[in-house]
Batch of 4 targets.
Target 1
Amino acid sequence: MFRWSLTTGLIGLLYWQMKLASSLSNGAPVSARADLIPRHSGVQPQPFPIPYTIDFKRNLDANVQTFTVVILGPDYKGLLLEALMPNSNIALGKWQTPPPNTKYLKCSGNEQDAITHSNTQIKNNSTTYSWIPPSPMPP
């Protein structure tokens, strides 16, 4: 049986792929998953060092375990947030109801695979996302 630990959570975080950019007004297309490079006119990938970090906290409920995810850094308009299996394009877990100005993006056959922006309204450190890991977690 798989046991969650802080190490497991940190390892899982390494597999998160995200791209923050000035954005398409109605969200990233599924094709953006291939390389996470923005495809809209006048938008360049973020420079290095990337000005964002992902903060996550494990929440324990009697029935389900979730992680609260916050993107720390400058305000942003667009994103593609997804948890992936190591060395694959298979989405891992699912996202709970997206916060305002964001929506689900179906990528691997699950309606709740990923979250993207739904408009160009500013998102910031107060925008929180909630991710549910699979149970049991794959090796």
Note: The radius of gyration is 15 Å.
Target 2
Amino acid sequence: MSMKKLDERDQKILALLERDARLPISELARQITLSPTAVRQRIARMEKDQVIKRYTIDMKRGDEEAGIKVIMILNLKGAHCKKLVAALGHLPELRKFWSLTGELDVTLLLQVSNVERLGDITSLISDHELVDKVQTHVVTQTHLDR
């Protein structure tokens, strides 16, 4: 099912579940002004059509505020994202790894405990044979986190 076939109520269900996947059917029904049965049927249809693929949790990883969030942008020597994921995937600080189109090849989201560890990881990535250029950006403030 394409997103075009989702009506306004389907979109509202998805938005509410995205904020809280544990929201009871009765509360979804109340907020959308549908019967619980109708909401249940809509959710079942979206699951069947793979609009809703899974339900997950957002787990707190220790004291995140004490860590340093870092966005690292990489230019690679060729199209080697899968090889780089294999080489860096073991790093517990690596939270996200995105392949990009355009001038930049990869964006990483890291959560490091301190500046020394950031230096170690930056050196590890910079020295990797597949990496041509590294830009490191420390996140100073989060204005929106959904």
Note: The beta strands are 68-76, 94-99, 106-112, 131-138.
Target 3
Amino acid sequence: MFHFAVTGLLDRRRTDNDSTARMGPFNISTNVTEVCASIDDFRNQVYSTVYSVITVFGLMGNGFALYVLLRTYRQKSAFHIYMLNLAVSDLLCVSTLPLRVLYYVNKGQWNLGDFLCRISSYALYVNLYCSVFFMMAMSFTRFLAIVFPVQNLRLATY
């Protein structure tokens, strides 16, 4: 019985004076290319804008963090070294975003060559995974320091 109810809803009917295909209570436009073109234009505008903003703030923020961490490098702790590595990794990850901005500004056309395409994608994902790894390592170090404070005193100073 359920099978007949579902197939009845999915019955596609078309009228001669209507330019839409009817699928039960839903109307689906037959002119999909107009909808997709506007979605692609919207995506290109949003991605290029968001990546540009992330690039500016990411370069400034990670550059400042790197500057502060290098100025206070004499405080050698595991957490400080993790933060230094995280700042470098994020800075490298953000530095690949201008290439993606160019890709979306050019409406999905890559004009910078195959080698640069591969290197930028590789650098983005490697640095992204490194950032996740360093955050995980910092969290694990903090976990050990909180749960076992006496046994892990050497984690506080390197």
Note: The longest helix spans residues 32-71.
Target 4
Amino acid sequence: MSVFHSWLRQAARWLEIAIAIPLVLAGGAMVLVVLGGVVFRYVLNDPLMWSEELARYLMIWIGLVGAAITLKHGEHIRINAIRQRLPALLRLAGDIGVALAIAWFLWIMTSQGWEAAWRGARQSAPTLGVSMFWPLLAVPVAGALMLLHHLLRTLLLITGGLAEDDPEPGALS
């Protein structure tokens, strides 16, 4: 394995760790918020008005940003029936075509998500009272993180740095 490929794989690992730590913290916070909401509603008979909304926004962040890790590990939906029957050169050309389409989609997701977040900044969440910019920011952040992982994977694909046993078209580990 070349130094360049090793560097790309290391960058992908560090990016995954940087994504996973806040996801774990958000997951723990979501559990505590939901548990607190249940205790206050059914034990203390004094419901927290904001707990469901906060848990919903945390779940959106976890789902969208967690998709970046899914993309890194190649666990997104794909159909390999035709791809596996192609000669190596056509398989590579198809993989590059798919990689370009995914990158284009992720760029649109990021740029349009950023615009939507800014448009939503003037609105407030009903019970939390925070700007809707923060919940809506999950879309462009997730798009940018997925795009980073995807670009690292695509560089490995183009330069021959993906091992044969790596699931195509995704894993970097």
Note: The chain has five helices and no strands.
